[in-house]
Design goal:
This protein has 15 helices and 24 strands. The chain has 551 residues and is α+β, with helices and mostly antiparallel strands. The strands form six sheets. Strands 11, 15, 16, 17, 18, 19, 22, 23 and 24 form a nine-stranded mixed sheet that branches. A six-stranded mixed sheet has the order 5-4-3-6-7-8. Strands 12-21-20 form a three-stranded antiparallel sheet. The longest helix has 22 residues. It is found in: Nucleus.
């Protein structure tokens, strides 16, 4: 199998050094690879189709745009994401072309696999592998068109991992803005899908005079949030680690959320009991009981620095074991019962010993997932389903009884905007209409082993494949600005929200979270509701009159 370049150079795809030569030749070879694939009817595009005619969603009170986040005269910016459309991004935020930008990306193949680990089963697969490697090359090449942009490709030590975190850190003269969200830097992600977003501004640390008049020191020690943020960002590579030095000037002690990071690698705890969970949050939840905090991505430690957090967490009442778990996400990995119930669900439901679907009550786990009809009638039509990856083989029978309908509250105006948000929560089932949450997480992590990790070696180590980042909303943390009084967490459409004073004058303060949950949650009807899978042909026309043909 030979590829002919424009200048007459010939590449032999069967040669051992074929991949190295393609990478050396760059754009010249890329054109030949694409031409060959097009000739043989193989799509060179992935699953993320960009819609041509976008429909702007209703701007609700709880909605923010990308230009809202990147407002004002920031001096430097760190962007991290999986996929980018740079011309669109810089058109939305022209300031990004004027200041130094660190751009961390996960551009490999669009299925979420690191290209270095695609099996070379045949020469055609070998050619596809090279094309996927060129995705990274193309991203780097696009960045070169902007002299102020420095691209960063974080290390991925474990096969099939990816960089999936979506965040930005913008430095201003007197503050830093940290935003963590669920959208790629793509137009349709921000305009036609339901996304989650958290952001907060942090001011400068107070300067205190030292004994030496010529010296000034920054008062106050580093907060948990700052340490977690710096540790996570430092794992992305040397350029980002240097950027982190700037963050030491800012006071993160007022952070009203806890970070939920995942970093690829094998992380060892101090013992079996302390490594019981495959989930970062497990130890944060156990903190309420034994005052241990999870150290970055899987390791556990006790530290004097944690005392302030522990005092807050001790104010929090651990949810009863019968409080159900909600899992809402936009990509379903290949799961087995042992991991889902014995590791994942057990970690979020401390006190339960769950090993299979037979011992997991139907009302203990709620998986919110769009149906075929939801996708067909969405703002993007069938194309929205290409961003909700789930092959038929992954929609396993044991999952069906836990499926719940995609029915966001009418107040959010998101029924026809398919979910790209990923959220997890525990709620009080005593009054489904109340919508009161024990805690909630908004994150880049889908329901997959790559994102949350798997236990190994008799539960003494945790293996994580991908970079992920989210935030956890906890009553004691949200109450930091109210003299430490824990807030009450409720969804925006809850009965509690209708009758509560959000300012919290004489009653317990209430925080409204605009999460896509309508209580009571609606169970799938096996006769009428079909969960979305993306590898089946759909002949019924969508709102644009199109059928669905899988890529």
């Amino acid at each position: 199998m030979k590829l002919f370049l424009d200048d007459g150079f010939v590449l032999d795809a069967t040669a051992e050094d074929f991949r190295d030569k393609v990478l050396q030749l760059g754009t010249r070879a890329e054109k030949a690879v694409l031409a060959f694939l097009d000739e043989h009817g193989i799509s060179s595009r992935g699953s993320g189709a960009v819609l041509k005619h976008l429909r702007t969603l209703h701007r609700a009170v709880h909605a923010k745009s990308l230009s809202d986040l990147l407002e004002g005269e920031f001096s430097r910016c760190l962007l991290t994401n999986y996929m980018y459309d740079l011309p669109w991004l810089f058109a939305e935020c022209p300031r990004l072309t004027e200041v130094p930008v660190l751009l961390v990306h996960g551009e490999r193949d669009r299925q979420g696999y690191d290209v270095a680990y695609i099996p070379l089963k045949c020469q055609l697969m070998k050619l596809m592998n090279v094309l996927l490697i060129l995705c990274r090359y193309r991203m780097t090449k696009e960045c070169r068109e902007y002299s102020n942009v420095t691209p960063v490709v974080p290390p991925l030590p474990i096969p099939y991992g990816t960089h999936h975190t979506k965040m930005l850190v913008a430095l201003y003269s007197e503050k830093v803005r940290v935003a963590i969200f669920t959208a790629n830097f793509l137009s349709n992600d921000w305009n036609s899908k339901t996304q989650g977003l958290w952001y907060q501004d942090f001011g400068l640390k107070v300067l205190a005079d030292s004994e030496d008049e010529e010296e000034e020191t920054v008062s106050g020690s580093s907060s948990d949030f700052e340490v977690d943020l710096v540790h996570y960002l430092s794992s992305l590579g040397a350029p980002v680690k240097l950027f982190c030095a700037e963050l030491k000037r800012f006071d993160f002690s007022t952070a009203r959320v806890a970070l939920v990071p995942s970093v690829p690698g094998v992380h060892k705890g101090k013992g079996e009991e302390e490594a019981l969970s495959s989930i970062i949050i497990r130890l944060l939840m156990l903190t309420f009981e034994n005052l241990y905090l999870l150290n970055r991505y899987g390791e556990i430690r006790a530290s004097p620095r944690t005392q302030a957090s522990c005092s807050l967490l001790k104010m929090y009442k651990i949810p009863p074991t019968d409080n159900p778990l909600i899992c809402q996400f936009s990509s379903l990995g290949s799961l087995d019962e042992k991991w889902l119930f014995g590791e994942f669900a057990e970690s979020f439901l401390p006190g339960k010993k769950i090993i299979s679907s037979t011992s997991m009550p139907i009302q203990a786990l709620h998986i919110i997932w769009p149906s075929v009809e939801d996708v067909r009638n969405s703002l993007e039509g069938w194309n929205s389903g290409r961003s909700i990856p789930c092959p038929l083989k992954n929609m396993k029978p044991f999952l069906h009884k836990y499926l719940r309908k995609w029915k966001p509250p009418s107040e959010l105006h998101r029924q026809n905007a398919m979910p790209h948000i990923k959220s997890y929560a525990r709620f009080n089932p005593s009054d489904d209409g109340a919508g009161e949450l024990a805690w909630a997480i908004v994150t880049s992590s889908n329901l997959s082993k790559a994102a949350w990790g798997t236990l190994q070696k008799n539960k003494t180590q945790l293996m994580i494949r991908s970079y992920e980042l989210g935030v956890m909303f906890l009553p004691p943390l949200l109450g930091r600005q109210r003299n430490g009084t824990p807030s009450r967490l409720v969804t925006i459409a809850s009965k509690a929200a209708e009758h509560s004073d959000v300012a919290g004058s004489d009653t317990q303060p209430t925080e409204l979270l605009p999460l896509p949950y309508s209580f009571p949650l609606t169970t799938y009807n096996p006769k009428n509701d079909e969960p979305w899978v993306w590898d089946l042909v759909r002949e019924s026309p969508d709102i644009f009159g199109n059928a669905y043909i899988p890529h």
